Every structure is written in structure tokens, then in C-alpha cells.
């Protein structure tokens, strides 16, 4: 899970045709993050800011577990799946886990589940953590200094003379 703790972790977001997503979508940045936790988790910058917030709340392991499960679903090959499943189990689910998440039924989990891994083996636990974040941490994040300061910076950038000049140039081009 070293990849998960890297500040550069998060797969590139692509559109339906596999091209990097355009920054010219209707909503972006904090406006998009505020629409839903799903939208926030689709944006690498949003994930970074949410992690920053959760770290201050001593619950960063929740989003790290969720991200690890998302990455695990894409894992190919039984051996790689076993290795990643064991890593997830040891990091987040075992009683000795360094970043243990609090999920229902955890006491019944044992390493035997790692013998026959499958892409959705952590789905129920991942859903629990997602709901915990959605109905608890996410609403506090939207009121946090981290979110509000980022939003303020975005608004200042949008209202800067350079941004307005570019917008005017763009409107002249499209209105001809």
C-alpha cells in the first residue's frame, strides 16, 4: 500500500472515450466537490484536500481504505490479488492493523478470506466506510477551513483580471 500513501496517488481521470477529462466541464473544483462525495472522490485534487481534512480529524484511514479497495477491484491475476488483499487486510482490517478502520463484523474477519480473493471481496466493508464518510465526515469537510479556503482561492482566480480578459476573448471568438 505504499502507492496509496504517496502524495501522487490517484489514477488519471478519463472520460468515456479514455481521454483525460476536460477542465471545461460544467462544474469543476469545489463546486463539483460540493455536489456529492462521489464527485469529490473522482477528482484527484478533491481527494487530496479531503485526505488533508481527515488527517486533522484522525480518520484518514477511511478514505485510504476506500481508495485501496477501488484500486484492488482493478487488480488482475490471482497472485497479485492475494498480495493486495493481504496488504489491505494487514493495513486496515486485522486486529494489529496500523491504520485500522472501524467496520461492522470486523471481529469475524480472518486471514482465511485472503486464500480465495475476488474483486468485490471488500465491497461490503468499503460500502460501510463510504457511508460513514458520506454521512459524517463529508458534511463537516464542506464546512471546513480546508474546503472554504480552497473555494475562496478558486473564486479569486476566476475574478482575476487575467481570467476576465480570457473570458472576454473567448466570448468574442464564439460570438462572431
TrEMBL record:
InterPro entries: RGS, RGS10/12/14-like, RGS10_RGS, RGS_sf, RGS_subdom1/3, RGS_subdomain_2. It comes from the Eukaryota. One of its GO terms (cellular component) is nucleus. Gene3D superfamilies: 1.10.196.10, Regulator of G-protein Signalling 4, domain 2. Residues 155-176 are annotated as: Disordered. Transmembrane segments: none annotated. Keywords: GTPase activation. GO terms for biological process: regulation of G protein-coupled receptor signaling pathway. GO terms for molecular function: G-protein alpha-subunit binding; GTPase activator activity. Residues 36-147 form the RGS domain. PANTHER family: REGULATOR OF G-PROTEIN SIGNALING LOCO. This is RGS10 protein. It comes from Eolophus roseicapilla (Galah cockatoo). The gene is Rgs10.
Amino acid at each position: 500500500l505504499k502507492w496509496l500513501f504517496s502524495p501522487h496517488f490517484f489514477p488519471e481521470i478519463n472520460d468515456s472515450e479514455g481521454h483525460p477529462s476536460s477542465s471545461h466541464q460544467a462544474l469543476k473544483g469545489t463546486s463539483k466537490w460540493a455536489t456529492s462525495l462521489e464527485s469529490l472522490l473522482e477528482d484527484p485534487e478533491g481527494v487530496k484536500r479531503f485526505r488533508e481534512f481527515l488527517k486533522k480529524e484522525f480518520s484518514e484511514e477511511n478514505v485510504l481504505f476506500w481508495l485501496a479497495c477501488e484500486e484492488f477491484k482493478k487488480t488482475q491475476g490471482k497472485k497479485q490479488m492475494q498480495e493486495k488483499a493481504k496488504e489491505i487486510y494487514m493495513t486496515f482490517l486485522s486486529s494489529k492493523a496500523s491504520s485500522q478502520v472501524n467496520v461492522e463484523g470486523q471481529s469475524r474477519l480472518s486471514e482465511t478470506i485472503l486464500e480465495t480473493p475476488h474483486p468485490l471481496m471488500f465491497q461490503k466493508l468499503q460500502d460501510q466506510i463510504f457511508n460513514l464518510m458520506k454521512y459524517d465526515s463529508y458534511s463537516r469537510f464542506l464546512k471546513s477551513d480546508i474546503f472554504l479556503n480552497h473555494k475562496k482561492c478558486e473564486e479569486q482566480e476566476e475574478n482575476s483580471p487575467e481570467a476576465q480578459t480570457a473570458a472576454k476573448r473567448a466570448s468574442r471568438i464564439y460570438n462572431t
